[in-house]
Amino acid sequence: MNAATFLLALLGVCVLQGAAGERLSVAGIQPDLFLILAVGAGLGAAPEAAAVMGFLAGCYQDTLSGGPLGLRAFTLTLMAFAAARLGREMEASRPAAQFAVLLGGAALAGAITLLTLSFFFGPPPLLHTLVRVLLPETLLTAALGTALMAAARAWRIARRVAP
Amino acid sequence: MTAALLRLIARHRRGAVLASALLAAFLGLTLQARQDVAAVTFAKRALLMTVAPFIKATAWVGGGARAVWRGYVDLRGVQADNRRLRAALHEMRQRLEGLHEMAQENRRLHALLELPDVDGGRPVAARVIGKDATNWFRTLLIDRGGGAGIERNAPVLAPQGVVGRVVEVVPIAARVQLVTDPVSSVSGLLQRTRVTGIVTGDRGPTLRLRYLPLMADVAVGDRVVTSGMGGVFPKGVPLGTVTGVERKSGALFQEAVLEPAVDLSKLEEVLVLAGPPAR
Q1: How far apart are the first and last CA of chain A?
Q2: Closest Cα in chain A, distance from residue B57 (Å)
């Protein structure tokens, strides 16, 4: 993903999550489109470019949320960098494996956010946060991320087959 | 010396970029941990300004697209022989629908203007154009900002009661921290017994009334209103209704669980009290 495509995708995610996030939500919990973008962009990029893309995506997510600037930027920088290290292996793997990796990634991203939040602003109620935020968000994000990866793969195959 | 340093950074470019990004995020968080810093606030406002027009435009286009879709659905059953009559009927129906929508909006806005005891400033009606981009916080984006005279900490209300307060302002939009946000706190008053406490968010759809004395008389069904203390919200605006009381053994205070007076998931318009906060 080149810089222009990434910036366009970032703008799209900002608009989608900001203006239509509620419509994508299940039981009040919305999928984390910024995480999906950071991981998706990171998969096909060099690790240093992925870190910058993750940082930018995180900064915009912080801007569109009530959280402090840097909270999600910190998390998404790490996640995009990790995705770049995983690279093409994940793109080529089966959907079940992709779901498992995304599930682990989303859970890890949630845990990093929780730890960062606790470190700087005091610990939020753990059980409450796990049950009401982290777990449902992880499941939803991983499911949507896997579906989007499958769609992207199908799109690439269709383009290759087309004359 | 500098050349050697640059060579070293170039050799470890990956690590250097990652470390710089993490350090920038960490620095931003450190600066905001105790108080707002002008540079961070400026950066956040600048980033918001780059996307707010697009979100505002999308909300506007979305409203138009919904109207067009409704029109398309209405048109699906049109037959050739009575096309003219149906078209006329359709036009009338659309007009009626538009009038109905306008009447509903008018009722909502009218109700906003009839809020009790709103003496905190000049009321500014605003539309909700976006929700929080994470599940960790509870905020809204509204389509009026500094250009309409809205300032930071301005109270935000709905006909049923308190919505929250403005935490960030750019000329064309503002971010509202809802009363259900985990870091929100509003001084509340039990209407029946006049006992005061602090109403905070609960990381869910409910609120909590904290720091109530153990001997305080609190019962399910009690209404909680703003106490007027703190200088942000006018006194007497509904916050919620008590749905449960918790008294933990050994605790110094009791807590009450509240159902918010306003259904925050279905907000379309809000009223912001611009100008000086209520005293």
Answers
A1: 23
A2: 9
> What SS3 class is residue A87?
coil
Residues 6+ apart with CB under 8 A from B235: B117, B189, B225, B226, B227, B228, B278
Judged by a CB distance cut-off of 8 A, whether residue A11 touches chain B is yes
Crossing angle for the helix pair A47-63 and A33-43, to the nearest 10 degrees: 170
List all residues 6 or more positions away from B69 whose beta carbon is below 8 Å from its beta carbon. Answer: none
* pLDDT tens string A138-150: 999 999 988 888 8
B257 touches chain A (CB under 8 A): no
Q: How far apart are CA B11 and CA B225, in angstroms?
A: 62
Tell me which H or E stretch contains B244. strand B238-246
For residue range B249-261, list pLDDT tens digits in order. 888 899 999 999 9
Rounded CA-CA distance A44/A87 in Å is 6
Give the pLDDT band (50/70/90) at residue B117. Answer: very low
Q: Which helix (H) or strand (E) holds B108?
A: helix B83-113
Residue A160, Cβ density class (10 Å: 0-12 exposed, 13-18 middle, ≥19 buried): exposed
Number of domains in chain A: 1
- pLDDT: which is higher, B75 or B104: B104
Domain with A154 in it: 3-161
A56 touches chain B (CB under 8 A): no
Chain B residue with Cα closest to A29: B135
Alpha-carbon distance A53 to A56, whole Å?
5
The answer to whether the CB atoms of B30 and A11 lie below 8 A apart is no
Q: Taking 50 as the threshold, does the pLDDT of residue B278 lie above it? A: no
Inter-residue contact B187 to B196 (CB < 8 Å): yes
Q: What is the CA radius of gyration of chain A?
A: 15
The pLDDT value given to residue A101: 81
- Does the pTM of the predicted model rise above 0.80? no
Q: Looking at the partner chain, which of A19, A55, A121 has a beta carbon nearest the beta carbon of B59?
A: A19
